[in-house]
């Protein structure tokens, strides 16, 4: 019974992988299909195409597997969650879905093999193997949530220092675009995530996107509450014509105060 079930699962996994390889090979040999695929990825997320080189073969195969499932209603929310986790590639949703499919198949196979080798009772192995696909399908979601929290914390901890650097740049006579570019370079050792986001804001402004829209995109990509507050402050400053340097300095100080209050609250909860 075990050998038959293992054989069926392995056959299914090999069939899926072979079909993905075949589909990829046909696409790469057909210039029309290749161009259509590139156009589809470009229109899906124009800004994300430039943020990475050609993905490795493994990721391309996983993306092919992810394409087996039809697009769900929450595709936009999925893409937003992946961007906030740091995955901005156009094919990131397909890779994410492919990982869910592979994990849903690998978890029960691994458990059945372990049960056969360890001599576990058949009933226990069969019962747990029913649950394993659901657990494997949900694991990538947990990983993305972890990456979102990690990235959000890194950006949040480095943002006050970045604002201080921006104040220095603005007071030295640099424009907002040049200040963002300079701060992105200087802050890279402390926070690569924040550095990349500031570079992306500067890139969007250079391509013709207004400063307010580029800053709103920054807030949406990070999902950090303090970034939303910063964007609102800068937008209000532009409308009223007040000093950007003074506004940035005051906002950085308020952010440090909130960060200290959060640290004290966490310390009280821990004690």
From TrEMBL:
Domain of life: Bacteria
InterPro entries per record: T2SS_GspF_dom
Membrane-spanning intervals of the chain: 94-114, 126-146
Residues annotated as domain Type II secretion system protein GspF: 163-270
GO CC list: plasma membrane
Pfam families from the UniProt entry: T2SSF (PF00482)
Keywords, sorted A to Z: Cell membrane, Membrane, Transmembrane, Transmembrane helix
Membrane topology of this protein: Multi-pass membrane protein
Localization annotation: Cell membrane
Keyword Membrane attached: yes
Chief subcellular location: membrane
Identification of the protein by name: Type II secretion system F family protein
């Amino acid at each position: 019974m075990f050998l038959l079930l293992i054989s069926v699962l392995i056959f299914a996994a090999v069939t899926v992988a072979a079909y993905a390889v075949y589909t990829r090979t046909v696409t790469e040999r057909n210039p029309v299909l290749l161009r259509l695929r590139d156009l589809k990825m470009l229109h899906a997320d124009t800004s994300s195409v430039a943020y990475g080189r050609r993905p490795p073969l493994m990721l391309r195969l996983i993306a092919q597997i992810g394409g087996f499932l039809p697009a769900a209603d929450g595709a936009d929310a999925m893409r937003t969650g992946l961007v906030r986790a740091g995955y901005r590639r156009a094919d990131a949703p397909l890779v994410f879905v492919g990982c869910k499919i592979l994990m849903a198949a690998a978890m029960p196979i691994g458990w059945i093999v372990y049960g056969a080798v360890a001599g576990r009772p058949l009933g226990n192995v069969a019962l747990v193997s029913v649950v394993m696909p659901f657990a494997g399908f949900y694991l990538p979601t947990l990983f993305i949530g972890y990456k979102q929290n990690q990235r959000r914390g890194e950006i949040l901890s480095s943002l006050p220092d970045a604002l201080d650097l921006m104040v220095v740049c603005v007071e030295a006579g640099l424009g907002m675009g040049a200040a963002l570019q300079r701060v992105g370079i200087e802050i890279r050792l402390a926070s690569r995530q924040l550095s990349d986001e500031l570079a992306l804001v500067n890139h969007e402004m250079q391509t013709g996107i207004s400063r307010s829209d580029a800053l709103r995109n920054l807030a949406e990509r990070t999902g950090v509450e303090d970034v939303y507050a910063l964007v609102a402050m800068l937008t209000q400053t532009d409308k009223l014509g007040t000093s950007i340097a003074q506004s940035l300095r005051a906002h950085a100080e308020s952010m440090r105060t909130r960060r200290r209050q959060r640290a004290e609250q966490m310390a009280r909860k821990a004690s």
